[in-house]
Amino acid sequence: MSPEDTPAPRSLAEALRSRDDASLAALLRSRPDLITPVPTDLTQLATRAGTRASVVRALERLDRFALQTAQALAVAGDPATYQELAGLMAGDERDPAVVAALPHALGVLREQALVWGGDDRLRLVRTARELLSPSPQHPSPTGLGPTVQEATAGMSPGRIQEIVTAAGLPSTHDSVSAVTALTALFTDRRRMAALLDKAPGEAREVLERLVWGPPYGQVTADPAAHLRWLLDRGLLLPTAPGTVVLPREVALHLRGGRAHRTVEPVPPVVTAAAAHRPQVVDSTAAGQALTALATVEELLKEWDEGGPAVLRAGGLSVRDLKRTAVALDVAEPVAAFWVELAYAAGLLASDGEADERYAPTPAYDEWRELPPAERWGRLAEAWLAATRTAGLVGGRDAKERTLAALGPGLDRSAAPEVRHRVLTLLAGLPEGAAPVVESVLERLRWERPQRREEDLRTRLAQWTLTEAELIGVTGRGALSAHGRALLGVPAPEGAREEPEGPGDKLPVHHHHPHPVPLPEAEQAVATAAAARLLAPLLPEPLDHVLLQADLTAVAPGPLQRPLADMLGVLADVESKGGATVYRFTPASVRRALDAGRTASDLHAFLTAHSRTPVPQPLAYLIDDVARRHGHLRVGAASAYVRCDDDAVLNEILADRRAAALRLRRLAPTVLAAQADPAALLEGLRAMGYAPAAESAEGDVVIARADAHRTPPRTAPEPVPEGPPVPDATLLTAAIRAIRAGDLASTAPRKPGEGSAAPGELPRTSSAETLATMQAACLTGQAVWIGFVNAEGAASQRVIAPVRVEGGFVTAYDHTADEVRTFPLHRITGVAELADD
Question: Which of 1, 292, 652, 812 could form a disulfide with 800 if both were Cys (CB 3.0 to 4.6 A apart)?
Fold first, then answer.
């Protein structure tokens, strides 16, 4: 049978049945909810494809032009022809851009099973038609009202005849033919133009106000003459007392045949706001990447010995977020981003103890030992895939509760897709070009106009551009080379040409090989490639600092790990930037002594790592603090103070500032206090002394950094947006199972065989089942059976029996594509297949 002789499909199931495997795979890839779980046959697949939830999801993923095409089909006839659809989209003047883009848009709708049928009988899936068709409760996006037939459905036959006569048409014997004649008039361009030429000027103004929607208007019980003229001729039809509507056919004539006021067949172009040399972009992004690493380290160093408490509802308190922002010297939204990034990368979590606090995880120590480029890769990969959205921090949830950093309610499933899409659009610009932000947002609105959370999608895009700059994926607004590699997108040809200048409209490359986030294995490869590109751009860690006479040290770049760790204990960071300035204070030196260092250790350390001589004020500071450090010993009584010099204890007792410690002498060299040891230490230090903590054995307690870690924690799993896109293996298996199930459910059987109605399991007696099986073994023919497995699940199968014995039939199962053994008592019935 030739393709021309193939009968047109009568249902969506038949249309799907005529598809090849590649077409079915494209459908299941674009609508993964259809194979969760795998349908038993194509009829079930078609049913699922027509459910409201699935259709809504599919419509949300259409671009603006494909959606406009579906909206046009919703107001076209059912079925519609391709020419009718083209007229609704391109208008009477047949816009060439629309005509050229329409076949692809219709192909997308067909691929996603929203439209089926040939070009002469296009049918929009019923659920999609219901969602997109106009009604008083749900106006159509096209702004069109009901047809003449729909608007006159409840009108009296006499009134319909009056309208027909007033419109200049001959009266008819029935309402159906009258409505048909009126519809023919309104759809005839020449006759309709002649009728409107006779309309009063005010009547034309009324029609112009209603033509693009909404098509409904209000009239009084005694309408003005120009309104009466329109009502008499059916150009306005009553829908309810005091309400009239402009019929769809009249509106289409006035619009020149177009269903939409503005048709957008081509996506908006992403334009460039500025253009920079690619090398400048890459070096700027590398600098930001280095800052990102330093910021995350600084954050977790602040929380090394136990960070802020976890709120009862989860997350950071507003006060703790403010403290973190001050410590990092950034705004609170930026602090929330760094906190969430560390959490997404698995470097930060709650410790789970009774007094639950946030702290670094063991993975943080492993991360710190990696080369800088690989550490950045971990952060960038976690950011790209995270569904937690830091930009929401400080906002309100549906119950008007404040959304806290690290707290619940921050997951947005669309975030990874939006991040990836925004960066892919940047990758489509020539290298070094930074986009006009509004052009990126407009492109995203065109690609997903039906989103229920369009405002959120816009905000996600804006946050992506800001966060990409913070983390060093972009530099000066343009995508860096390592940013392209992170996406798995190759650089455009001729990428290293000099840019023309700011404000030029640079063409966007529409080819984006990865329109959705990469699979996990591919993303790991892309991240490694990005790290390799970034590594040469990062400065080599230094092994020295420059000591200055004002008790500061300048680090002209990033420091090697041991040097940075020791200097972080010995001094306080005073300022950051291209160079970091550290300041030495009595408290910072005492901190190093508390950590177990001696004065000679500190002198040797500074001498070894300074390119300048150790200034005399710094040497005196270290010696002075060390001389007094540990002279007093504090231990647990409730707490006590021990000192070999009783004169010092006399001085402390006489000091009025010590009253709050409630000290009393136990011995000439020992004072007891009612304060705990930590409070006693702080109190004595505030009085200008330098006490050291003492253990039960009488040894000085060394306070070491990195003292607190959470138990092993995994990074938070992203919350997916619906079922994941199936891979090739799953698609192949699913299509094979659907085809096999469809063969079993639709296999023609001989009349009179079995007692099943279409779609039900065949029913035969045990004797008939056995006899039919034995006959099929002898003839080698396939038969159709109903089978109930051990779990009670029923299915239909086509099998070719090979052997029948011992209450079992061994057969080749066409459904499973393998040889299987079936217990005869579980076969509900059998029927022979009809001859082809």
Answer: 812
pLDDT of residue 285: 95
650-666 b/e (C-beta count within 10 Å ≥ 16 → b): eebeeeeebeebebeee
> In which residue are the tokens 């050229």 written?
100
- Give the three-state DSSP class for 349: strand
| CA dist 195 → 188, 192, 252, 717 (Å) | 11, 5, 15, 66
Could you tell me which of 583, 562, 586 has the C-alpha nearest to residue 572?
583
Reference 17, options 771, 770, 746; nearest CA is 746
- The answer as to whether 740 is a domain residue is no
The residue assigned the tokens 């000091």 is 655
Structural domain range at position 767: 747-832
Q: Which residue has the tokens 């629309």?
A: 98
Domain count, the chain: 5
- C-alpha–C-alpha distance, residues 692 and 688, integer Å: 13
Cis peptide, bond prior to residue 558, ω within 30 of zero: no
Would residue 20 count as lying in a domain?
no
> What's the pLDDT at 697?
61
Those residues whose C-beta lies under 8 Å from the C-beta of residue 397, and which sit 6 or more positions away, are 403, 409
State how far the Cα of 553 lies from the Cα of 551, in Å rounded to an integer.
7
Angle between helices 278-302 and 372-385 (to 10 degrees): 90
- The confidence score (pLDDT) of residue 451 equals 60
Mean pLDDT per 10-residue run, the chain (836 residues)? 61 90 91 85 89 91 94 90 93 90 95 92 92 71 88 88 89 88 91 90 90 87 88 89 90 92 93 92 94 91 85 91 92 96 94 86 91 95 94 88 91 92 94 94 89 77 96 95 90 48 39 58 91 92 88 86 82 80 90 84 89 89 85 68 83 84 83 82 82 69 59 82 80 82 68 53 82 84 83 80 87 76 88 67
CA-based radius of gyration for the chain: 39
770 falls within a domain:
yes
Helix then strand then coil, in percent of the chain rounded to 5, is 45, 15, 40
Residue 147 in tokens: 């047809």
For residue 475, the one-letter residue type is G
List the one residue out of 459, 415, 416 whose CA is nearest residue 441: 459
* 407 shares its domain with 321: yes
* Overall pTM > 0.85: no
Within 18-156, where are the H helices?
21-30, 42-49, 52-60, 64-75, 82-90, 96-111, 126-132, 148-151
In terms of domains, do 496 and 550 share one? no
